[in-house]
Request: fold
Amino acid sequence: MELPSLLLCVLLKVLAVNCEVENILIVAGDYSLSIYEGTEQEILPKIVVPHPEYNSTTNNNDIMLVKLKAPVYLNSYVSIALLPRHGATIPEGRMCRVSGWGYTSPSGGQIPSTLRTVKLPIVSTQKCNSSESFDGDITENMLCAGYSIGGKDACQGDSGGPLVCEGRVYGIVSWGRGCGEAQYPGVYAAVAKYRRWIDNTIFSYYSRCNNHN
Ligand SMILES: *[C@@H]1O[C@H](CO)[C@@H](O)[C@H](O)[C@H]1NC(C)=O
Ligand SMILES: *[C@@H]1O[C@H](CO)[C@@H](O)[C@H](O)[C@H]1NC(C)=O
Reply:
């Protein structure tokens, strides 16, 4: 069964602090990276807006907006994932789905050619930030998800991908320690903390260049 392709990359993780606009290509409607399926839409970015308070040491505010040069056409391969309302919370234990083309094993190896996905429960910030886990490195702008026994997780190459809960992108794959380790769930940028910033940023660009955007 083919997985529904996700419209990834509307929200991209900051890949590098100085990431050049020219080095990004947004692809919608992709499933297999190794074959051309005819469903792909490739679009260049027009503007990238990293979060002004992104901290590469702590990974705090690990979020970036990308305005595309051209529209993406919605069809059965490309659809919209909604954003949560500002400040919306998702309770511990709620199941969410993360997707990506990242490593399927903590030791790396070959990356998968097709989009992979896994369902994971939300871990409370209290547990995730405790001395048994990330020991104080979790900020209020982060969200944790994973099983207490580990085994299922996002991994290298999944960064920037969506963590979807109740049909909304509550998280963006950000960081972790290893992959699938029992003690360390995956850490995500908590999108609901940024909804106001996202809306304000989009609106300010529209109002600044309201002719041909
Ligand atoms: C990043 O966070 C660390 C720890 O809070 C802080 O010491 C540092 O100054 C911050 N860096 C930037 C660029 O804000
Ligand atoms: C995580 O723990 C550190 C150290 O105790 C604390 O400064 C920080 O506020 C905690 N994060 C959250 C979201 O409570």
Observations:
- The pocket of 2-acetamido-2-deoxy-beta-D-glucopyranose (ligand 2) is lined by residues 125, 129, 136, 138-140 (CB under 6 Å).
- Confidence is low (pLDDT under 50) at residues 1-19.
- Residues 121 and 147 are 6 Å apart (CA to CA).
